[in-house]
Amino acid sequence: MIIRVLRITVREGRVEDFKQHIANTAIPRLRKQPGLVSINIGLPRPDAPNTFCAVMTWDSIASLKAFAGEEWEKPLIQDDVEEDIVLSREIEHYDTFGLMT
């Protein structure tokens, strides 16, 4: 499995718009993707009031490629609405170590 960590900083004054985009567009689209094991969204905190985090677990790189394309190691921009709201994106990938319970 592979963990995909995406940090997104939104433009000043656009936090609520991005929350709506996540709830109404991004999450429903992601939940339909074969191979997505889990997704967690981190909301902004006082020390970074415009920065969100998404942590996704995929069952394989093949599944992630099917979703994000051949350039799966880059942040995926899905639509113009997101482009208008988002200031910057950072992405990292990790192999899983195993189940920790």
Keywords:
alpha+beta; about 35% strand; Alpha-Beta Plaits; about 100 residues; 3 helices
Per DSSP, the total helix count is 3
- Which fold name fills CATH's third level, the topology? Alpha-Beta Plaits
Biggest β-sheet strands, sense, barrel = 4 strands, antiparallel
The backbone outline, from C-alpha atoms, is globular
Mean of the pLDDT scores?
91
Structural class: alpha+beta
What percent of residues adopt helix (DSSP H or I)?
25-40%
Order of helices and strands: EHEEHHE
Identify low-pLDDT runs: none
What is Rg? 14 Å
CATH class reads: Alpha Beta
Which helices and strands, and how do they pair?
Layout: E1 2-10, H1 15-31, E2 36-42, E3 51-58, H2 61-68, H3 80-85, E4 86-95
What do you see in this structure?
The chain has helices at residues 15-31, 61-68, 80-85, and strands spanning 2-10, 36-42, 51-58, 86-95. The chain is an alpha+beta fold. It has a single domain (2-95), classed as Alpha-Beta Plaits (2-Layer Sandwich). It has a 4-stranded antiparallel sheet with strand order 2-3-1-4. The longest helix is centred in the N-terminal third of the chain and has 17 residues, at 15-31. It is globular and about 35 Å long. The model has no long low-confidence stretch (mean pLDDT 91).
